[in-house]
Design brief:
Helix content: 25-40%
Oligomer: single chain
CATH class of the largest domain: Alpha Beta
Radius of gyration: 25 Å
Structural class: alpha/beta
Number of helices: 20
CATH topology of the largest domain: Rossmann fold
Number of strands: 28
Amino acid sequence: MPFSTVGSRTETVVEAVRVAAAATPGKLAFTFLENGETESARYDFAGLDAAARRVAARLQADGLAGGRVLLAINPGPDYVAAFFGCLYAGATAVPCYPPRQHGKSRELAAIAVDSGAGAVLTAGGMAATVAERFAETVEDSHFPVLDVDTVDDALTGSWTPPEIDGDDLAFLQYTSGSTGAPKGVMVRHRDIVRHVGYMHRRFELTPDSTAVSWLPPFHDMGLIAGILMPAVMGYHAVLMTPRDFVTRPARWLEAISQYRGEWVAAPNFAYDLCVERVTDEELSALDLSSWRQACNGAEPVRAETIERFTERFGQRGFRPGTFRPCYGLAEVTLAATIPLSGSRPVIIDRTWDSDEQGKRLVGCGVPLDDHELVIVDPETSERREDGTLGEIWVSGPSIPAGYWNREEETERTFRATLPGGDAHYLRTGDMGLVQDGELYVAGRYKDLIIIRGRNYAPSDIEHLVGPCHPRNRASGTAAFSVTEGTENAVERLVVVQEVRTRRESDFEAIIEAIRKRVLEELEITVDVVVLTKPTALPKTTSGKIQRRACRARFLAGSLEALHVWRAATGERAAGPVELEDGWSGTAEAMEILLAENVGRVIGADVAAIDRAQPFSTQGLDSVRGAEFTGNLSVLLGVPVPAAALYEYPSIRDLARHLVEQRAVGEGTGDGR
């Protein structure tokens, strides 16, 4: 069929979905799980087409065809309808992380301004929140906010097919810019259709395949692998929300068992979460024998993770050859390399001058068909021999057009050439080597920080930290990540800050301010804070901080530190602390219960947890916060939404609220 083969007659996503809707109207396209367990909605291909036409007709009526439209919608059927509705309208979709109910949404505002969006699509009662966030963060904001839920079904019949072709933009994938300047990758219709076709062929998927995904659709992996590839290539995808996964990771594996899923994709940390938090009881009920492909990408792939996951779930039908470590980035649409069919993960040990301990590197496959990957000296642009470390460059027919409104960066990043050649390559900024045809990713030349599959620019973090306390020295901040642990290696965020004080009381206040600011703005935790005297950070002659030199000194223990704070790194436990018989439910008992459950989630001794301190200083980032509130929901029998951590920002505040609610027989609200 045209929509299931590479090089088909379809040039746009709209054509591909329309062909599928006409050929197999009743075939399931998407199944949506509420709470990660119960079916809440379905789209067959005819229903997907109708939902997209309904939204598109409204956008066309509002004069938004040909423009950019922001998507500020939580994952689910409304998001899928809105995204495809943008494409059906001939508009360019701009996926964004939806705004939080509490706190400013700088990223959303920065993307809105950079993209020049003409409107914002929202749903699920979020219109007022979105409007408030824009009013707080965008000067002279007049963005129309359109609630997808209010679009009249009668508009479906008034939709007009857009006059677009493969060269037209489908969406802008923003890669960074939490507080700094964001960069939107211009992904065209033909990039998507070709790319998912190449991936579909490499993974040997069929119209009868089923994928299961919890990935956020605002991220390139979640959008392309979880939504676009099934829709364009005509197979079924089962979707749940990221929060439902991180609250109880077993839900993902249970959905694979129930729906006989054969293909999934996730960052490395997701497989670690499953090993750490799927209980023996949950494990015993799984049947993973249908699972053929487990893509691991979006962040460094750990050999230890592959080994631990395979050992843990092999008894339930997970086969050693199921893992498919991949390498990719938004600038190549999604995947640059994927292992060939039938291969098992390959692990090698390598040592080079810049890394005294060496690394266990996991093979990430070979380039997609019709694509080329070369290893290059980043200084001379000369091609390097196999087995030699260098920068990874990629070329091929599904590479996007460049960065939106950034011609100079586009020229530098997307149009690199080898000496004496005229073919254009994408410079990834990552370093790796090719051995026996297999790519091994060794690290990053660029100072990018990747935490749980999401990219953070160090400058964004430094921009937040520098002014967060009056004793911080201006232009005296360095942010970077280090890998800690062997069996369960994880990326740790380190912040080094020059300060103008020697008082211990100031140190405590500065550390609290740094942790709170980063968590509130970026929803990630700082694992290590190093406070130094002014001028202690290595800098260039022009005064620019040398992050790599700073990181090297940190690892060597040679930073001139005034004070060092480290987050608790004790063993985390799965599931909530159980209620004891005769539990009183008093405010004091509730505080103890909450402290015990915080301790289990962050791996800290309950005696070290200050119940009066904000959650933002307890190490509860977005993932651990969802786990904590999910555990409480199970334990107390009432829904405790993640937003409760903002409304009642300490253990003491939340305990008092929960006791009051139990007294009147109410929960804390749905909030899902």
